[in-house]
Specification:
It is a single chain. This protein is an alpha+beta fold. The chain has two domains: 2-84; 104-129 and 172-344, BirA Bifunctional Protein, domain 2, CATH 3.30.930.10. The protein has eleven helices and ten strands. The strands form two sheets. It has a seven-stranded mixed beta sheet with strand order 1-5-6-10-9-8-7, sandwiched between helices. A hairpin with a 2-residue loop joins strand 7 (245-252) and strand 8. The model has no long low-confidence stretch (mean pLDDT 87). Tetramer of two alpha and two beta subunits. This is Phenylalanine--tRNA ligase alpha subunit.
Length: 345
């Protein structure tokens, strides 16, 4: 009697069908759940004569295995069918998808990192959403400095009681240097590449976000001569062995003395052309000796240690190397633009 019931259920299970996942689940409950038909056979199994129990037990196990395999197969078929029936995504790029290449900013940033890494600088990173304390206060910015105004900086959250707790989008990666100096003692030799934000109108020559690489070296007896030699080595590695540099006095809150650095125009060789505005020189970065106030704010004894810092825009260096006429092209993700840099990889 029980063997006939098993054979009947086996034939029934082999012909099971399901048109969706819900029907497949209903079949699982019908046959394989605790109150299912296969489990109900165990009640009849108790009355089977002892000499037949082995044969009947094997048949029940085969029935259960067949039911599991059949229902799982139906479930997979339903899932595949539902995936295929999702339709065409009209917002997806048409096939075949045209691939670009590495972004020119990435190419140049990696080249800058490689040059300074070979000089012994290590990478340091920090948050893009920062507090005023690390972006401005520890960098020796005056309380009324224009960079602390909403017309120059993006504010995320303002604290009326304590301006150092204002939350901003960092306007330079100097905040990374501040955080690193807080937790490390000299010698320090780091570069901090990353994206920064400033509240500017978006034009061919400016954007509300861009990328920087800043460097910091602090140790005993560090001089401006050390800074000049490092920057000269960088310029010749990046733009060619014949490149010359020029340092012009400037002002930054976090360095003293400070300078702007120009390189001889690599297009005209310093003779003067439209690109360098017929001066023979092109500005590429700012630099200087770290202000003692910055060292003290970050917990470093300025009477024992000195250091230099520099910062450059990656977009600026990329423009000098590849003469991209519009900064907006860097962020539009146009593969036609990116394909122009295939050989640079």
């Amino acid at each position: 009697m029980i063997l006939e019931k098993i054979e009947s259920l086996l034939a029934e299970i082999k012909t099971l069908t399901a048109s969706n996942a819900e029907e497949a689940e209903a079949l699982r409950l019908k046959y394989l759940s605790k109150k299912g038909e296969i489990n109900a056979l165990m009640a009849d199994f108790r009355s089977v004569p002892a000499e037949q129990k082995k044969e009947v037990g094997i048949k029940i196990n085969e029935l259960k295995q067949t039911a599991m395999e059949r229902i799982n197969a139906l479930r997979e078929q339903c899932e595949t069918a539902e995936t295929q029936d999702e339709g065409i995504d009209l917002t997806r790029s048409a096939y075949p998808i045209d691939l670009g290449t590495r972004h020119p900013l990435t190419i140049v940033k990696n080249e800058i990192i490689d040059i300074f890494s070979r000089m012994g600088f290590i990478l340091a990173d920090g948050p893009e959403v920062e507090d005023d304390l690390h972006v401005f206060t520890k960098m020796n910015f005056a309380a009324d400095h224009p960079a602390r105004d909403m017309q120059d900086t993006f504010f995320v959250e303002q604290n009326a009681e304590d301006v150092t707790k204002n939350i901003v989008l960092r306007s330079h990666t100097s905040s990374v240097q501040a955080r690193y100096m807080e937790t490390s003692q000299p010698p320090i030799r780091i570069i901090s590449p990353g994206r920064v934000y400033r509240n500017e109108a978006i034009t061919a020559r400016a954007h509300c976000f861009f990328h920087q690489v800043e460097g910091l070296y602090i140790d005993k007896d560090v001089s401006f001569t050390d800074l000049k030699q490092v920057l000269l080595s960088f310029a010749r590695e990046m733009f060619g062995a014949d490149t010359k540099i020029r340092l012009r006095p400037s002002y930054f809150p976090f360095t003293e003395p400070s300078a702007e650095m120009d390189i001889s125009c690599h297009i005209c060789g310093g003779k003067g052309c439209g690109f360098c505005k017929h001066t023979g020189w092109v500005e590429i970065l700012g630099c200087g000796m770290v202000d003692p106030n910055v060292l003290e704010q970050c917990g470093i004894d300025s009477k024992v240690y000195s250091g230099y810092a520099f910062g450059m825009g990656v977009e600026r260096i990329t423009n000098l190397k590849y003469q991209v006429s519009d900064l907006r092209m860097f962020s539009e993700n146009d593969t036609r633009f990116l394909e122009e840099f295939t050989s640079a990889n």
